[in-house]
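1st attempt posting a full record on here, be nice pls
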Amino acid sequence: MGGNYKGVGNITPAAEFNFAADPEAAHVVLTELNCQDTLLVTWELCMKYSFTWEWYNEFIRTDTPLGEFFRKIEAKTLATYYSVKDVSRSYTTCDQLAAAIVVDPTVVTGSREVACDVETAGQLTRGQMVVDWENAERRRSNATLVDSIDVERYQRIFETIVKGRYQDRQIADA
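the predicted structure (as tokens):
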């Protein structure tokens, strides 16, 4: 999970947290490692498929060991990030969404191959992912940008894991 392509950041005005934390590392991953399967789960995707607070309030009451663990690890995020940022409109899951896509790639319903890089020197945009939408640089695609998911399937995976019903990789069918 990392990057943003619309210039709306979550840690700076223009950058997503993971790419902003180490833009040089993100640049290396995107441009020098030549990975065949670089799949980008961006900040915009996470925001687009965030959950309602009503769903979260019901979900967080899951009475399982994983439910308790989840409540504990989310407590600091809820107390800090959601209380000071103007993101309280919905509950955003980022790493969970990336993990769900790894567990079940059929969660992805739409994606596109893109040529992209990360701004490493900009005074205002350091850490922002830049996508060459028009192929102006004539570079080959170096990543797959996920732009839509099966939100019901993702929600099922997320709930199934936290409710402790994960068995024999049958997560999406629970």
